[in-house]
Amino acid sequence: MSDKSIRFALHGYGYIGRMHVLASQLSLAANGGPTVLWDTAVVRDMQSNAAQQASTAFAHVTDRLADLHERPLDAIDIASPNDLHFAPFELALEKGWAVYCEKPISHCLEEAERMVALAQTRQMVEQVALVYRFHPAVLEAQQWLLSGQLGRVLTFRGELLHGGYLNPARPMSWRLQKQASGGGAVMDLGIHIIDLIHLLCGKVAHVAAETRTFIPSRAGAAGMEAVDVDDWASITLHTESGAVGTIEVSRVHYGEETDSLTIVCERGVLRLPLDMYQGVTLHTYEPNIAPITLDKNQHADIFTAKFAQSTLLNLHATALAAFCARVQGKTVPYAVPTLADACVAQAVCEAALAAGSTKKQ
To answer: Domain containing 108: what range?
Structure first.
């Protein structure tokens, strides 16, 4: 591996895999490196559109994970369905590759915990795509909370309201099957906000929730198939420090989607507009609050007006830039999301799903 390039394999070339490839190109264009060389894509079907599209971006495309054994790789990006994450992760352990993994890291908590335990036996570079940690407002909120000027956190309110599954004509996919995904809106979206609560407000100690599945079946390969994951959830969380708050997540919020987090402290309120690429808004009654000084670094400010794209693409690009820097042995000024962080957030998600199921009985 040269100082300017990292050779990657990608496991899974669906929507999120394509997002990672595009994000790596944006990061390179904006800050000059390191270069991501997309060596091999592992797809599920060599006759699929994904395989055809991958052939334009990768030197090699295969449907066999074993074909990676002989490739000269530095890292693997795991962007396949959640129940397929373990095998490429295990191969990376064997080969000594760095691992960049989508969230949740597995379809079930037991396997996620096993991945964490295995990773801790090796001094490997690993990172999870909990990309909101790299949002400018999150970085700024961290500085405000660490300054102590706002006092302790009292309450919080998080929303990730998306609309991809409101249309009942949208066909069945692995994201709507618990066996493959591990959960619906809670596991897909809620894990992001729960991770931010852990980062900014403290560890969750108690969970209550209500969940709903509004569209119970969809057209699949074998006709109408049952949807066994949640479309929507409202979750109440209590932290170990005494803060209490709510999260609403939805995949049936069609139209104007909303991603936000509001944190109420003793001396002010922080609003984080997660759906816009901008800083935090502070409202305070205290006239003597001193402005904070943000840490400057090579990644957080890479997106000038000419390079900045959608918020989500910017976040993926920043996260991948941080990962690549770490692969090259550099230190980055972020609270990098690890497998262990993702596992802790997944445990809260599973507790919320269990609580929601209990309420509906």
So the answer is: 5-129
**DSSP secondary structure, 66-129, as one string:** GGGGGS--SEEEE-S-GGGSHHHHHHHHHHT-EEEEPSSSSSSHHHHHHHHHHHHTTT--EEE-
Our measurement of the distance from residue 48's CA atom to the centroid of its chain's CA atoms, rounded to an integer in Å, reads 26
Locate 28 and state its tokens. 């390179």
In a domain, 302, yes or no: no
Q: Which of 74, 108, 129 is the last residue of a domain?
A: 129
Do the Cβ atoms of 229 and 167 come closer than 8 Å?
no
Contacts of 11 (CB under 8 A, 6+ apart): 42, 65, 76, 77, 78, 79, 80, 84, 85, 88
CB 357 within 8 A of CB 229: no
Asked if 128 and 122 count as a contact pair (C-beta separation under 8 A), the reply is no
Alpha carbons 316 and 94: distance in angstroms, whole number: 27
Record the pTM.
Answer: 0.94
CA distance 73 to 69: 9
Pick the last residue of a domain from 106, 129, 152: 129
Residue 260: Cβ within 10 Å count: 17
Sign of the torsion formed by the C-alpha atoms of 204, 211, 101 and 88: positive
Task: Encode the chain (361 residues) as per-residue pLDDT tens digits.
Answer: 445 789 999 999 999 999 999 999 887 766 666 789 999 999 998 988 888 899 888 999 999 999 999 899 999 999 999 999 999 999 999 999 999 999 999 999 999 999 999 999 988 999 999 999 999 999 999 999 999 999 999 999 999 999 989 999 999 999 999 999 999 999 999 999 999 999 999 999 999 999 999 999 999 988 999 999 999 999 999 999 999 999 999 999 988 899 999 999 999 999 999 999 999 999 999 998 988 877 655 445 556 666 667 899 999 999 999 999 999 999 988 899 999 999 999 999 999 999 998 665 4
Counting the structural domains of the chain, the total is: 2
User: Among residues 355, 338, 345, which one has the least CA distance to residue 203?
Assistant: 345
- Cα–Cα distance, 251 to 233 (Å, whole number): 10
- State whether 201 and 122 are in the same domain: no
What is the Cα–Cα distance from 310 to 219, expressed in whole angstroms?
31
What one-character DSSP code corresponds to residue 187?
Answer: I
